[in-house]
Amino acid sequence: MSLVSKAIAPAVNAWSADYLEQQYRAWKADPGSAPADLQAFFQGFELAQSQTMPVQSGAPGDSGDTRFAVGVHALIHAYRSQGHIAAQTDPFGRKPTRPAALSLSSHNLVDADLQRPINTGVTPLPASATLAELIAFLERTYCGPIGVQLAHISDPVEQKWLLDRCEVNSGRVDLSRGQKAHILERLIQAEMFERFLQNRYPGEKRFSLEGGESLIVFIDRVIEAASALGANEMVLGMAHRGRLNVLRNILGKSLEQIFTEFEDAWASLVEGGGDVKYHRGYSSQKQLASGKIMKLVMASNPSHLES
Fold first, then answer.
1. DSSP H helical segments within 52-122, as ranges?
2. In the prediction, which pLDDT does 34 show?
3. CA–CA separation, 9 vs 135, rounded Å?
4. Which of these, 103, 67, 69, 68, lies nearest to 83 by C-alpha position?
5. Is residue 4 classed exposed, middle or buried when 0-12, 13-18 and 19+ CB atoms within 10 A define those classes?
6. Who's near 141: CB < 8 A, 6+ residues apart?
7. DSSP secondary-structure letter at 88?
8. What is the pTM of this model?
9. What mean pLDDT comes out for the span 269-288?
10. Which of 143, 64, 148, 52 is nearest to 103 (CA)?
11. Nearest 5°: phi and psi at 270?
12. d(CA 153, CA 250)
């Protein structure tokens, strides 16, 4: 049996640029002079050239619609994927290093484009909005005091759901004066609780919530929302950090009980111990602002050694 080898034609990418240029000029003069594979390649190249507007270097006055539309979409994606890097989240107020992708020049856009209207259809802005208004919107949404990172989410439905809630009103929630006062009260309660424990029991392990007091506001809002949806009981499970604060300011555990546990005199209490204070569970009935009653349970958190 004999084996006959058949030569395999090299791919276009393997040919030299000089050879392709020479063949292209010959094909332009006589289309039938080039091999069939090169004819198809050159025809596709010509088609692409005819349908793609030349991308300019971004000189002032450039009005290429394709360049502008592509640049706008790329800029939106850049904010959604890298905007959180430029968010003002440093507690010391230091300015973050802005990614180059958030600049106009990175997407072939120039200052002369700022007053041009956009028509992306992928943001909640009106169709009459300009590029300058779009950038202001993206800055508020992604580079403000909250960093939002969404572009990595692979599920398009999940990503769209989050985008709708983060970008509508730039992620802000309109609150009444009364709601703002309630949030402030909850934050003050959470902070003062931690301050007192630190001053009164400086050597005690307590897994402070300091720096994360907004957790109290968040859980408070979740409970209210769950009640509005018909729930009447909620079981919480959490690790050590902030647990005492949640027990006090969410479940309403009395200060007397908590301080008694810090004094190691809890054996006299009915509930009694056997475990450290930041492992224990608790249950209570909480009356909400709506007047409804929610049963709250904090699951016990046994130590890792016991587990």
1. 65-82
2. 75
3. 50
4. 103
5. exposed
6. 79, 83, 148, 166, 167, 170, 171
7. S
8. 0.60
9. 72
10. 143
11. -60, -40
12. 32
Averaged pLDDT, 43-63: 51
Helices (H) and strands (E) in the chain, counts: 9, 3
Locate all alpha helices (DSSP H) within the chain, ordered by sequence: 17-29, 36-51, 65-82, 131-142, 156-167, 177-200, 214-228, 243-249, 255-262
Kindly give, in sequence order, each residue whose CB lies less than 8 Å from that of residue 44, ignoring residues fewer than 6 positions away. none
Q: Mean pLDDT over residues 272-301, rounded? A: 82
Write phi, then psi, for 234 (nearest 5 degrees). Answer: -140, 130
Residue where the block lists tokens 């580079």: 143
Which residue bears the tokens 């990418």? 13
Quote the tokens at residue 275. 């475990």
Place of tokens 């997407």: 107
Q: Are 58 and 110 contacting, i.e. CB atoms less than 8 angstroms apart?
A: yes
Judge contact between 58 and 40, C-beta under 8 A.
no
Q: How far apart are CA 29 and CA 33, in angstroms?
A: 9
Closest CA to 280 of 256, 253, 250, 249: 253
